[in-house]
Write a structure and sequence with these properties.
Lipocalin, mainly beta, two-stranded antiparallel sheet, single chain
Length: 167
């Protein structure tokens, strides 16, 4: 184990070709989000924008919870409040990071996808997450002062894109 500048303990070592510790440190610094949702003719009504604060809960050395709150603004209609809890889990032995949605609580997570590093600053879903007839994929990119999480949902009745910007 070692301690980095921000006081986080890692149970894995840094490999110059594998930057999970760097990504993990960036995730731990997130404090806010903005997102844009687009529905391309599927009729889901996901079009709109959202923004709000993110509170980070450190569960252990390989688990972070993102407690997200904010307001969602559809193109037409009233502004709505939202809350989400996402669990990020580092899987250093597999060289992956996992994202789960905790809408049903911590003991009943909704698995979304595992991400693997595909370039110096980019992580892509290993395989699509299948939910009924829909396929969820994602790309996470470390940019200068932000993290971009770009989701797509495709299926018989869905054609969606959600772009999160975490700062």
């Amino acid at each position: 184990m070692r301690k980095n500048k921000s006081g986080w303990y890692w149970i894995f070592t840094l490999n110059t070709n594998f930057d999970l510790p760097v990504l993990w440190e960036r995730l731990a610094k997130v404090r806010s989000l903005q997102f844009t949702a687009e529905s391309f003719g599927s009729g889901s009504g996901w079009n709109g924008r959202g923004a709000g604060p993110v509170s980070i809960e450190v569960v252990d050395s390989v688990t972070l919870l993102f407690h997200e709150t904010g307001q969602w603004s559809p193109p037409e209609g009233s502004i709505l409040n939202f809350t989400n809890v996402f669990r990020w889990t580092a899987l250093p032995d597999q060289r992956l990071i996992r994202l789960e949605h905790l809408r049903f609580g911590r003991t009943n997570p909704v698995y979304l996808f595992d991400l693997q590093q595909t370039s110096e600053s980019r992580w892509d879903s290993v395989e699509p997450h299948v939910c009924s007839n829909d396929f969820y994929t994602a790309m996470l990119e470390c940019q200068q002062d932000q993290l971009l999480l770009d989701w797509t949902v495709k299926g018989a009745t869905k054609n969606e894109r959600i772009r999160y910007i975490y700062t």
